[in-house]
Design goal:
globular; about 40% helix; six-stranded mixed β-sheet
Length: about 300
C-alpha cells in the first residue's frame, strides 16, 4: 500500500512542469523588463551638495523649455517652450489649455519627476536642481485627478500626509474640506475602512478626502492637477466651491500659493492670473473677465464648454 501511495504522490512533484514550460518565456520577458527598469539610470538625481530646504515658497519659472528624451512622448519632441511666470507666496495662478498642451508635464517638472531641458525653475532664487527631491516635494500639497486611497481607515489615509498629526488637526483639515460631517455620520467615523482604492466612497467624497489630506500636509504651495476631471458637472461645481472655501479658511492663518492646472474653466474667476497654454507655449495671460473679452483660445474653450453644459 505504501508503494502504491508513494507512486501516486510522486506525480505531484512533476504535475506542474508542463504549465511551467508554457509560462517560461512570459516569465523571462517579464524578468528582463524588471531588470531593465532596475538597472536604468534615474531620470532625476540629487546634487552632491544639496542646499537646505527652501526658506520661502516664492517660485519663479524663467524661459522654461522641456523635451522628453525617452517615453512617455517621442524622443526629441518639445513639450514646453519659453514658459515664464512667477508664483509668489499667497498668489493663485491657473494654467489652462487643451489636452496635450503640456500642463501635466509642467507639474511633473515642478515636482522634479523630470529635470528641465532649458531655462530654470527656482525656489527662493535658487535653481530647483540644487535641492534634494524630497525637499522640493515637501513644498507642495498635490491633489490630482486620480485620488488613490489605500484599503485602510479614513484616519490612516489622512495620516499619510502628516503621520504625526493630532486628531484636532485632522478634524480641522476635514472641516475645511467639508468632509468632517460626512465622516462622523459613518458608523465607525474616522475608523471607517474605505475599501480597495477607496471604492467604498463616491468620486466626490474621495476628492474631498484628497483635499483634506492636502490641507493636513500644510505645504506652502497647493498644486491641483485636473482635480475635477472625472466628476459630473454638478459634483464638479460643489468640489470647486469646496476647494475655494477651504483655501479661504487655510489662508486665514498662513497664506498659501495655488497652482491650478485644468482644462475645465470652472471657478477661475477667483484666480489672480490665468495662463493659457497651447502646444507648450503661453499664448494668453490675464484674468477671467479680461480673457473672455479677447477673441482667443480661452474664449473658444469657454464657449465650447458652456455650449456643452447648456445642451
Amino acid at each position: 500500500a505504501v508503494v502504491v501511495l508513494g507512486t501516486m504522490a510522486s506525480f505531484e512533484a512533476v504535475q506542474g512542469l508542463p504549465q511551467a514550460a508554457q509560462l517560461l518565456e512570459a516569465n523571462l520577458q517579464a524578468a528582463r523588463r524588471l531588470f531593465e527598469i532596475a538597472d536604468s539610470k534615474p531620470a532625476v538625481s540629487d546634487p552632491p551638495e544639496p542646499l537646505p530646504r527652501p526658506a520661502s515658497a516664492n517660485l519663479s519659472i524663467t524661459n522654461l523649455s522641456f523635451t522628453y528624451e525617452t517615453e512617455p512622448q517621442p524622443a526629441g519632441k518639445k513639450i514646453l517652450s519659453e514658459v515664464n511666470f512667477d508664483l509668489p507666496a499667497g498668489r493663485k495662478i491657473a494654467i489652462v489649455g487643451p489636452s496635450g498642451a503640456g500642463k501635466s508635464s509642467l507639474a511633473n517638472l515642478l515636482l522634479r519627476f523630470w529635470d528641465v531641458s532649458d531655462g530654470q525653475i527656482a525656489f527662493d532664487g535658487q535653481d530647483l536642481r540644487r535641492y534634494q527631491q524630497t525637499d522640493v516635494r515637501r513644498m507642495f500639497s498635490v491633489v490630482g485627478q486620480q485620488t488613490y486611497l489605500f484599503n485602510a481607515s479614513l484616519r490612516e489615509n489622512l495620516l499619510l500626509a502628516k503621520p504625526q498629526a493630532t486628531q484636532t488637526e485632522i478634524e480641522t483639515a476635514c472641516r475645511q474640506a467639508e468632509v468632517h460631517d460626512f465622516i462622523t455620520s459613518l458608523p465607525d467615523g474616522y475608523e471607517t475602512l474605505v475599501g480597495e482604492r477607496g471604492l467604498a466612497l463616491s468620486g466626490g467624497e474621495r476628492q474631498r478626502v484628497a483635499i483634506a489630506r492636502a490641507l493636513l500636509k500644510d505645504a506652502p504651495i497647493l498644486l491641483f492637477d485636473e482635480p475635477t476631471a472625472n466628476l459630473d458637472p454638478a459634483t464638479e461645481q460643489k468640489i470647486v466651491a469646496t476647494i475655494h472655501s477651504a483655501l479661504h479658511a487655510a489662508n486665514s492663518s498662513t497664506p498659501k500659493s495655488v497652482l491650478w492646472i485644468t482644462h475645465r474653466l470652472v471657478g477661475l474667476e477667483n484666480m489672480d492670473e490665468i495662463l493659457v497654454l497651447d502646444a507648450g507655449r503661453i499664448v494668453e495671460r490675464g484674468v477671467h473677465a479680461g480673457l473672455l473679452e479677447q477673441d482667443g483660445l480661452y474664449k473658444t474653450m469657454w464657449d465650447l464648454q458652456n455650449r456643452v453644459l447648456v445642451h
